[in-house]
Amino acid sequence: MDSRDANSSETTNVPVNPSSDSVFSHVPRAPEIPIYAVMTACSKDPSPLKLNLGMGVYRTEDGKPLLLNVVRRAEEILVNDRTAVKEYLPITGLPEFNKLSSILIFGADSPAIKENRVTTVQCLSGTGSLRIGADFLAKHYHQDVVYIPEPTYSNHPNFFIAAGLTLRKYRYYNPQTQGLDFQCLLEDLGSAPSGATVLFHACAHNPTGVDPTLEQWEEIRRLIRCKGLFPFFDCAYQGFVSGNLEEDAHSVRMFVADGGECIVVQSFSKNMVLYGERVGALSIVCKNADVASRSESQLKLLIRPMYSSPPIHGAAIAVSIMKNREMYDEWTIELKAMRNRLMSTRQQLYEALLQRGTPGDWSHIIKHVGLFTYSGLSEEQVAFMTREYHIYMPANGRMNMAGLSLKTVPHLVDAIHAAVPMSTSK
Ligand SMILES: Cc1ncc(COP(=O)(O)O)c(C=O)c1O
């Protein structure tokens, strides 16, 4: 009997001892990711008064998740398309999706697109696009320093750290003015090492709700180009600021119009309300078509061992909407309605705080834009509001304005009014 035979007869009869240690028994429990911990705590709270202002997702005036009508229509078209198949997509995704996504962000008459200087690849939503973008920089860019705004989206540091890049922060938000800390931003970027990558939120900054004005963007652009820094835009909320997709792309388009290079990441999670479909794109704008094409070939090498190719359904929905004029128009109307509801909720909250005579200047609530407002409430005040009023938000006081409605504004105002005396700053 050779050794393989001996093994097979002996080993198959060896009983597994369920009480023996797992080969993974050394694995420590990881701490819960803070925003998910907020969500879990909220879901376990039986109070009928509970208010969820935590996770960055849109809710209707009734507090319900939204499915856009135009998305429903697109899905019907897809279901009824008897020619549709479920073959693997190319590594870089659905070609039509890539083309239409780049038009959406750079504009239909973008010279960079016409000159084939842009490579756009479909990735797993904003998150996957950020991760591939960070990996591309780590592998193919000479400077490993990346500047991110302070504060920024809580997942941002992870992409660049995972890629092995060196993180630094630039000042962005001034808690005194509850607005942009423009001078400090210029100072920090002005002293960045040449070639450093600088991450910007294209619009609707998360978590603050504070964006630079167009004039400020222009000054930032000049500084970036003059110092040879590399801009990396994260565009997760196109349409949420002005209600207009073209207008909200302005910051990105300014940087592309000067002929310089940049990376742009897009997410359709928010503006098409496609969160779970994971629809997004990564674009690299290059100096010429040859570099763009070589960059794309390298993106394929990054994607292939990770997930091989992206999923088809969500991108197909986005294509159906973006390629059909009438459906595109319907999308923009529905998007604008979401944005308008956020604006009117801001106004209602602001007026209710004024009416209540809650001490402090609350005008930042109506000055901030997009989904979030950085309330200025301290960690202690947030904990108090959760404990006493069942109101949930991250410890930094970021409020998702979509979690609020005309009906729930009074409850939030009661809570803020009670929490404010705990602070000396308000
Ligand atoms: C600024 C920013 N970037 C990226 C993302 C990730 O978006 P996605 O859900 O498309 O991965 C988010 C999600 O909240 C975000 O706020």
UniProtKB/TrEMBL annotation:
- Gene Ontology CC: one annotated term: mitochondrion
Name the Gene3D superfamilies on file: Aspartate Aminotransferase, domain 1 (3.90.1150.10), Type I PLP-dependent aspartate aminotransferase-like (Major domain) (3.40.640.10)
Return the InterPro entries for the record.
Aminotransferase_I/II_large (IPR004839), Asp_trans (IPR000796), NHTrfase_class1_PyrdxlP-BS (IPR004838), PyrdxlP-dep_Trfase (IPR015424), PyrdxlP-dep_Trfase_major (IPR015421), PyrdxlP-dep_Trfase_small (IPR015422)
Q: Where is the composition biased (Polar residues)?
A: 8-23
| Catalytic activity line of the entry | L-aspartate + 2-oxoglutarate = oxaloacetate + L-glutamate
Domain of life, source organism: Eukaryota
Miscellaneous comment text of the record? In eukaryotes there are cytoplasmic, mitochondrial and chloroplastic isozymes.
Q: Which residues form the Aminotransferase class I/classII large domain?
A: 50-416
**One example of a Gene Ontology biological process annotation:** amino acid metabolic process
Q: What quaternary structure, including any partners, is listed in this protein's UniProt entry?
A: Homodimer.
Name of protein: Aspartate aminotransferase
Q: What Enzyme Commission number(s) does the record list for this chain?
A: 2.6.1.1
Q: Which UniProt keywords apply?
A: Aminotransferase, Pyridoxal phosphate, Transferase
Q: Which gene encodes it?
A: LOC116211953
Q: Which organism is it from?
A: Punica granatum (Pomegranate)
Give the protein family.
Belongs to the class-I pyridoxal-phosphate-dependent aminotransferase family.
The GO terms this record gives for MF are:
L-aspartate:2-oxoglutarate aminotransferase activity; pyridoxal phosphate binding
Coiled coil ranges: none
Q: What cofactor does this one take?
A: pyridoxal 5'-phosphate
Annotated region described as Disordered, given as residue ranges:
1-23
